[in-house]
Design a protein that fits this description.
The complex is a heterodimer of chains A (553) and B (109). Chain A is of the alpha+beta class and 553 residues long. Chain A contains 19 helices and 21 strands. The chains are: A alpha+beta (553), B alpha+beta (109).
Chain lengths: 553, 109
């Protein structure tokens, strides 16, 4: 786990002190709201519908057990006893007071956490695969590079006022569990012969103009990472549009410029910048890398795991969804579902945070991850410990056996909290999950990524859902558009809009018709929803979606 | 009162705590929209808006909200404003739950 250096510690403490002073000056009227707003946003503090919201960075989704307890402490002392994990691997606290914020940031700093660059037109938290450093299919742990980028981009003077926010995602596995094609820059560690380097993608993003990032470089030597990123950012900073907020993301720059001319510009900048990097970055990387070494895993006989799978059906069902192969065969990567049907997706109570932190200490070498799917991951668990872990998770309501299934939805905060939202997402997600749970169909349906956004900004990644739901405000009433065929990972695709939207109460029946049509049409239980959609085309699914007579009959 | 004017209330967020506030006839900021002053005239609305903007260390983001006048008081027209007035539809707080329950109790009496 990365531990702060003295420099990091001083930097974060100094920022807290600055913000404490800025808040005091806002409260006594020396700063106007116009002057103060950018300052609070630089520290992750938004003003939402009902309160301030503090977005705390979880760099590349990696947390230690003591950091998880610090989040629990903030939830208890300064919020309403819970927090919301986001698709950017961060956590948001929804009920924050401005006057408490300096103390909260101080408390977070005690455990090496901060809210810097979680907002504003700067380089945001770098996201990665939540299984990084553990997954069997990984080429290399991407997190040392993510940490290098974090250090390089924090307070980088040239990139504090970009045309718009800038999001980087890195994956070290060909599986791409970080949705890299939906990011401003996507990096994928790949091998070419004996050498490992990066495939670089640029100009992806969701929002009102969804685009999958095209390839900028097929192979970038690792030592060129920072100068090449700097070249991309310099090119964007130069020609990115500042006249129209909706055209300011790099995806529009790349689209309007064309990938070839944009690449020429980047290469031109790179030729200028590369000589300025004379090895300090590589020395820093060499210092960072050992922090991410695999813990000294204790060998355990996995026989208890196999036995529990045959004797305990509830455990077997959970293990089927939650357990992923680890680099070490006697260990596993465990995904803890934060999507218990009927609960708010992504919300975790302080009690649950502490319980999971304790379980990480007991079974997982004190390490935790937050996934972009809004779940919690224990990256290193001995298979022998899995039955005990499952039993402990059941006690705190975190043992849902639904990872990757229809009820493991991504949902943004929506109209219940967010100042930008046009419709609710969380209660709709709760109703859908509860409905399919009641029907007893969740496991039968199999893998079905369903994602809900409460506005066009697409924080719920609805474009990437096999079923995507987009909530809009149509003449003062919530209206939900349904898209089909989206996907993330190596076969990433943007979902296609099916037709007119549905009123709030009509969404659950529409999704049920759609799912029942799939169950009737699939060749076998092995043919996923997406595979059936690709084989049959959209028409039978669209017809089922709009066949409202079916419900009346 | 001009014929086409949509009635309005002045709203903002509390600078310190962030919660939703409305401007009352007394010139105080109140939490409950039922206590907000309903403005039925364009000129009056603009004057009250200016007056409300004169508390920059109390209220932030002051603006006018379209409402309809109902027996229980002003009700916002826009969906977003209805959520601001009511609070989230999930995880009701003890206070909100008590408020929801109150009218039912009185109706039973």
């Amino acid at each position: 786990m990365y531990e702060y250096s003295d420099f990091d510690e001083a930097f974060v403490r100094n920022r807290v002190a600055q913000f404490r002073d800025q808040v005091a000056r806002r409260l006594d009227g020396s700063l106007t709201e116009e002057e103060f707003r950018p300052l609070r946003l630089m520290n992750g503090l938004y003003l939402q519908l009902h309160a301030y919201m503090l977005r705390v960075a979880i760099p590349y989704g990696t947390l230690s057990s003591h950091q998880m307890r610090a989040l629990a402490d903030v939830a208890d002392r300064f919020d309403r006893g819970y927090g919301h994990f986001t698709t950017r691997q961060n956590i948001q606290f929804n009920w924050i007071k401005l006057t408490d914020t300096p103390d909260i940031l101080e408390r977070l700093a005690d455990d090496g956490l901060h809210a810097i660059q979680t907002s504003g037109n700067c380089i945001r938290n770098v996201t990665t695969d939540a299984f990084a450093g553990a997954a069997a299919d990984e080429i290399e742990d991407p997190r040392p590079y993510a940490e290098l980028i974090r250090q390089w981009s924090s307070d980088h003077a040239e990139f504090q006022f970009l045309p718009r926010k800038f999001k980087i995602a890195i994956t070290g596995s060909p599986e791409d569990r970080a949705a890299i094609r939906a990011h401003d820059v996507g990096l994928q560690l790949i091998r070419r012969g004996a050498e490992t380097g990066f495939r670089v993608l640029v100009g992806g993003g969701l929002g009102r103009t969804p685009m999958l990032a095209p390839e900028l470089r097929d192979f970038l030597p690792k030592a060129d990472l920072l100068p090449y990123l700097e070249a991309i950012l310099a090119a964007y900073n130069l020609i990115g549009r500042r006249d129209n907020k909706y055209k300011a993301r790099i995806k529009i720059t790349v689209f309007e410029t064309g990938i070839e001319p944009f690449r020429d510009l980047v290469e031109q900048e790179f030729a200028r910048i590369r000589p300025q990097f004379t090895g300090a970055d590589q020395a820093l990387l060499a210092e960072i890398t050992p922090h991410f070494a695999l813990p000294d895993l204790v060998a355990k006989d996995p026989a208890a795991f196999a036995a529990a799978r045959t004797t305990d059906p509830a455990f077997a069902a959970w293990a089927k969804q939650s357990v992923t192969d680890h680099k070490r065969p006697d260990h596993a990567v465990v995904t803890i579902s934060v999507k218990t049907p009927g609960e708010e997706p992504g919300d975790v109570s302080a009690r649950q945070m502490r319980a999971v932190a304790d379980l990480a200490d007991l079974h997982g070498y004190g390490e935790l991850r937050i996934s972009h799917m809004q779940n919690i991951v224990l990256p290193h668990v001995a298979r022998a410990d899995l039955p005990a872990l499952h039993a402990a998770l059941r006690k705190v309501g975190l043992a849902a056996a639904n990872v990757g299934l229809i009820s493991d939805m991504i949902a943004c905060p929506g109209m219940d909290y967010c100042a930008l939202a046009t419709a609710r997402s969380i209660p709709l997600a709760q109703e859908i999950a509860q409905h399919f749970e009641t029907l007893g169909l969740v496991e039968t349906i199999g893998p079905l990524p369903l994602k809900i956004s409460g506005c066009i900004n697409a924080c719920g990644h609805h474009h990437l859902g096999a079923i995507g739901i987009l909530g809009l405000d149509r003449a003062g009433a919530e209206n939900y558009q349904i898209t089909l065929g989206g996907a993330e990972g190596p076969e990433a695709a943007i979902g296609e809009k099916m037709g007119p939207g549905f009123a709030y109460d009509a969404v659950v029946p529409a999704i049920e018709r759609l799912v029942r049509a799939y169950l009737a049409l699939r060749l076998s239980a092995d043919e996923s929803f997406l595979a059936a959609l690709h084989r049959l085309g959209r028409e039978p699914f669209r017809a089922a979606l709009y066949d409202e007579a079916q419900d009346a009959a | 009162m001009s014929r086409s004017f949509v009635p309005k209330v002045v709203s903002a967020n509390d600078l310190r705590a962030g919660h939703v506030v409305y401007f009352a006839a007394s010139g105080d900021w109140v939490r409950d929209i039922a206590e907000a002053e309903v403005l039925t005239d364009e000129a009056e609305a603009q004057l009250r808006l200016l007056s409300a903007m004169g508390h920059p260390t109390v209220a932030v983001g002051v603006y006018l909200v379209d409402v309809t006048q109902e027996p229980q008081g002003p009700v916002p027209v826009a969906l977003r404003e209805q959520f601001r007035a009511r609070g989230p539809s999930i995880r009701p707080t003890k206070e909100a739950a008590a408020k929801e329950a109150a009218p039912k109790e009185s109706a039973n009496v």
